[in-house]
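Notes from the 1:1 (GR / supervisor)

We went over the backlog. Supervisor wanted to see one worked example end to end before approving the batch request, so GR pasted a single chain during the call. The sequence is below; no edits were made to it. Supervisor asked that the structure be written out right there so they could see what the output format looks like.
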Amino acid sequence: MINCRKILELYFEGVSQRTISSSTGHSRNTVSDVVQCTKKLGLESLNDEMTSPWLESFLFPEKQAVEKGYFPVDWEKVHKELQKKNVTLTLLHHEYATEARESGKIPYAYRTFCESYGKYAKKYKLTMPIRRKPGQIMEVDWAGSTLQIIDRSTGESIPAYVFIATLPYSQYSYVEAFLDMKSANWLIAHIHAFEYFEGVPETLVPDNLKTGVTKALRGEPVLNEAYRELADYYHTVIVPSRVRKPKDKPSVEGTVGYISRQIIAALRNYQCFYIDDLNKQIFKSLEEINTINFQKRPGSRKKVYEEEEKSHFQQLPQTRYKLAEWKTAKVQLNYHIQVERMYYSVPYDYVRENVDIRQTTDLIEVYFKEVRIASHKRLYGEIGQFSTNTDHMPDNHRSYLEHNPENNRKWAETIGPSTLQFVSSILEMNVEKKSLSILSTLRNLATRYTNSEMEKAAETLLEISTNPTVSVLKSILERNKKRKQNQKTDSKNHTNADDYGFVRGASYFGRDDK
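Structure output shown during the call:
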């Protein structure tokens, strides 16, 4: 057995390989092999867990003895395959067992297979800490440190908050500064990150900040509605990290520190007056970070992303997500809600109910228990404007609102030309308020008569009067109605007089004609 620990202890102390060979009793070739494997695997120091047997299995895995009769496992291949989408240890063990039986060998049991891989992965972790699958996760967070922009008019320093999105597999990152950390900028930052990566990952891992998570419950956190809607639009899933568990999103936590040193600290004395100018400098530094080569791995963040991870991302939708913001409001007694000092109607049945409001740049939508009950074009300009849908009003309110000269003329047209002429004369001969009052009486009167009766009475009224009034019209209608009833009575009596038949006579009933 090779005393690998003693060899490496002397090597890390700067002892020559010839002296190490003499001290340990191993040949110079053995010492050279140990040193070369150590350099290749990037091992730079030892800890208490690294015993000689552990080091030998780590440095020379191909030399490890295979139990007699058992089919050997290529752990490096297993580790690489496990990084692929939808690949699990169960599937890899099934493939391994099938291959073993075809070769006439005995496969390891699933439990032994998993335990052995766990030991291998623990060693592998020392040189390649990437454990995520490509295209699976995007970790997002706000940096703790801020940058500054200067107000031109006052010279005051305004803080700029830095958003960071990182892909754990490739460590490819996106960084952008905003003037606040409100929900709108949080969503805009995600949209810009998706467009920068030219795709969408399977899962988003944010912190438990209010713009992302409304209630940080242990079992199932309640997401901010606007954030959930964005995730639905881009067909991704939000899995918030646990409270006070930064290791749930280690990549972005590490990137926050790295970005703070490489970008935020570098730009701490940079003076600018616009957020766009600041972001230009951030993007310039970000490009350098993403394209610089790794120290212990081949390639760069950008190269690894483009060659290995980008193909696993979902495609972006053809149109960009239209930013929406959600609020809650209580329906007032006038069946309107207030949004930024503008008023929008909802059906009067929801008075005094709490409703959810989804607002975009051009639309206001109102929801009650996840059902949309109203929508309006968003109002801008002078405050205090109303957007009212007449269908949302009670019947008596709607009747009052629709009782105007134009609607009265339209109503008269449906009856006939004489009625229209009569209504027009009322509107022309009186002030509007008095005219509407007279027309209200007229329309109530019309509910008791047919359109033909109203039109005939109006025609008679216009013939006999130069100053037609509703009272005269009412008299004509009553007279016409009475005349019609009399005609029906006379017609009935006439029909009874002309009606005759065979009569038996009094004698038939035993009575004389006397």
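Supervisor's comment: The chain has four domains: 4-124, 137-312, 325-393, 403-498.
Batch request approved.
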